[in-house]
## 1
Amino acid sequence: MHYVDGFVLAVPQANQEAYRKHADDAAAVFKEHGALEVVECWGDDVPEGKLTSFTMAVKREENEAVVFSWVTWPSKEVRDAAWPKVMEDPRLPKDMSAMPFDGKRMIYGGFRMIVHR
C-alpha cells in the first residue's frame, strides 16, 4: 500500500493566497521527487473541542484557519529517499520564518495505509 505524510497547521486567514501559492510550489517539488498526490484543505467547519480538536492541537488563534494536508507516496522507501531531496530543493524556503504560517505549531507524521477503498 501507499505511504502518507500528514500535516495539520494554523494559517492566518490573511495569508490564504500566500499559503495556497506556497503549497502549490511545494506540491510541484514533492511530485518531482516521486509523490503521487498532494492535497491541501482549508478548514471551514473545524469545531472547537473540549478535550481535543484540530484547533487545540495547533493552538489556532482567532484570525487563523486550520489547514489539513497530506502527501501520498508509492511507498515509505520512495518517501524516505525523496525527503532529503525535497528539503534541499532551492524552490522551497529554508527559513521557517519565510513561511506564510507558524511552523512551530505544525503537526506532521508519516503513516502506513491500512485501508484504502
## 2
Amino acid sequence: MESSQNEMKLIIPTGCDNAPRKQIVIDFTVALLEQKNEIIKEYAEASVIWYQLKDDRKIENRSSLITTLQDVNKDTINCLEIYHVITHGKSASINGVISLENGTKIDFCDVYVFSNTAKNGKVKEIKSYRL
C-alpha cells in the first residue's frame, strides 16, 4: 500500500541545516511516516532494529521494517512538526508531534544509533517513544 497522495506538512526548526546527519535523521523520519522505501533502503542497514517501545515490539531487519510499514493501517498524517534534532557521534534523536487528519496528536521521540560516525553511516537501531 502506498502512502496517501495528500502531502504531509513538515515544520522544521531553523538551524537544522548545520550538521549533515541532522538532515539524514529528518529525511529518514519522514520516509518512515510516508513509507518511502527507497529512502529507507538508502539510510538503513540491512540488519536495522526498530524498537517500538509503547507496543513492546521489536522489528528486525530492513525488509521486515518495510513490510511492517506497508501492513499497518495508518491514519492520514496532516503534519509533522519537529521540535529538536540532536546529533553526537553515532547517536541522534528527533522529537516533535505528529498530527493526524482525525485530530489526534502523537508526541514522539526517536533515538537513532548509526553504524559509525561518518556522514555515510547507516541507521543501525531506532528506539521509538510515542505518547
## 3
Amino acid sequence: MRDHDSVPLPDYRELEQSEMIARAASFYEEIKRRHTVRSFSPRPVPREIIEHCIMAAGTAPSGANHQPWFFSAIGDPETKREIREKAEIEERAFYLDRKAGEAWLEALAPLGTDEQKPYLEIAPWLIGIFAQRRGGAEVGEERKNYYIAESVGIATGFLINALHSCGLVTLTHTPKPMDFLNTICGRPDHEKPFMLLVVGYPGEDATVPMHALKKKTLEQIASFI
C-alpha cells in the first residue's frame, strides 16, 4: 500500500461484548419502529434538528471520500407548493396515464398510493437529495466522482435513521423525472435529483399499510458462511 497522509484512529471506543450485543438488539428494536407514512402534521420542526441530521448524513462513507451529495432543505411554504405542483404532474402521468406499467402499479396497489401528494405542502420540511456527478473531497473541485449512487444511498440511509432517532417520520418520494428540483432548488445540471425526503411529525390520521409491516426474516435476507 502506497504512502499517504493519515492519523491514528481518533475516536474509536471498544465495548465489552455483552454491551455490543445489548446495543445491537436495542438498535434493532428502535429501528423497526421506523415506518413510512403519508400523512404529516403541519407542526413546525426546528431547523436545528434538520441541520444536525444532515450533518450526520454527511459523515457517511463515499467513493474516494468525494462525498458526492447535496441536501437542499426546504421549509418555505411557496416553494413546497411549487414542488407539489411539479411532482403531481409527473405522478398523474405515472398513475393515470399508466406510464409506470401494469406490473409496477400492481405492486404499489397494497400501499394505496396515488397521484395526490398533499404531504409535500403539509410537512414542515422537504429535503431534496442530489447526487453530484463531479466534485471532489474539497469544495470547488471539478473531479470525477465515484460510486455515486452507492455513496448517496448510504448517506440517505444515515439521514433517515438520524431523523427517526429524533422522533420524526419520513417518506421517500421519487417522482420521475425530477429535473424540476434542480430549477426550484437552484442546483447545477451536473447534480442529479436522487430523492425527495418528506420530514415531520405524523398526522393524527397517519396509518401504515399492513402490507408494509411485513418484513422478511433473518433467514430470508442473510446467510452466514
## 4
Amino acid sequence: MRAYDAPFPDKKYKAGARAFPRLVPMHPNDPASEANRNAWKVLERWEKPFLTTFSNGDPITRGGDAYMQKRIPGAKDQPHVTLKGGHFLQEDSPVAFARAINGLLATLS
C-alpha cells in the first residue's frame, strides 16, 4: 500500500485515479464508446494467440473473459484461466498469473 501511496502526499492527489471507473463507457453514447467499437473491429480479426487470465472476485470484469474468448479468434484453444483474487491479479495470484503468461510464451518460442 505504501508503494501505491508514495507519489501522492494526500487524498486530493488521488482524484484522477478515483475518476478512472467513470471513464468506462456504459452506454453507446458515452464519449469512449466509439474508440471501444473501433478496438473491437481490430480484436474480432486478431489471429495471434490471446490468453485471458481473469479473477473469480472482480465484479467489474466478471464474464469478460468468456465474451473475449468468444469474439477474438486468437483466443480459440488457449489455456485460459480463472484465478483467485480481485482486480489486481499480479498482487492476488502472482505466481499463477506469471505461470499462465509464461506458459503461453513457451508455446510461442
